[in-house]
Amino acid sequence: MVQSQKTLVQCDFDGTVTVEDISFMLLDAFTDGDWRQWEDEYASGRISVGRFNSEVFGMIRADREVMLDYIMDRVVIRPGFVEFVALCHQRGFRLVIVSNGLQFYIERILGDLGMADIEVHAARTRFFPEGLRVEYMGPDGTVLDSGFKESFTRLFLADGYRVVYIGDGRSDFAPASLCHQAFAAVDSGSLLTRCREGNVDCHPFADFHDVVGAIDTW
Fold it and tell me: Which of 19, 38, 103, 114 yields a CA-CA distance of 20 to 30 A from 77?
């Protein structure tokens, strides 16, 4: 890598920074109805991520603090993440979380880790008695129904960054395929399989210690 070249790390959150998917944890705990039927629709590609989130989070009537209280003792951060963030700061890498999850819990979890300064782009949430309303805002302020993660990847690339991608699931494949280097979690999601099927170079990782060990090759 050229010494003067800017490096940006675009990182997913649920199932990547965390071991489990926090949004699914909330849906299991607080939805009134069978939200998994919508997950099947999304997994099969019949509906967008925007439609999926609108349908399933609309089933939740709990307020923000109730949900945050529920997850705080249940969140497991993938080992090595703290060290990874420190090394990104040391090397001058710009670290950005871009997630299909909900911004309010991502920011709380990172804040509790002492990492409130990490840049986060995720679903914006409004709380109503009849259910949550979520939406994705692209880099230009446009509401997006799909393509949220890759919209930021394209922006970062256009800004001249060498982009390294870290993720785990199906929504990570499109942005990962655009990046200079990609890492896929081995224990969750389908990113690793999709990259191998699509001939996209992708490095498997079990925890962030594996990613830290690869930084010298960036």
Answer: 38
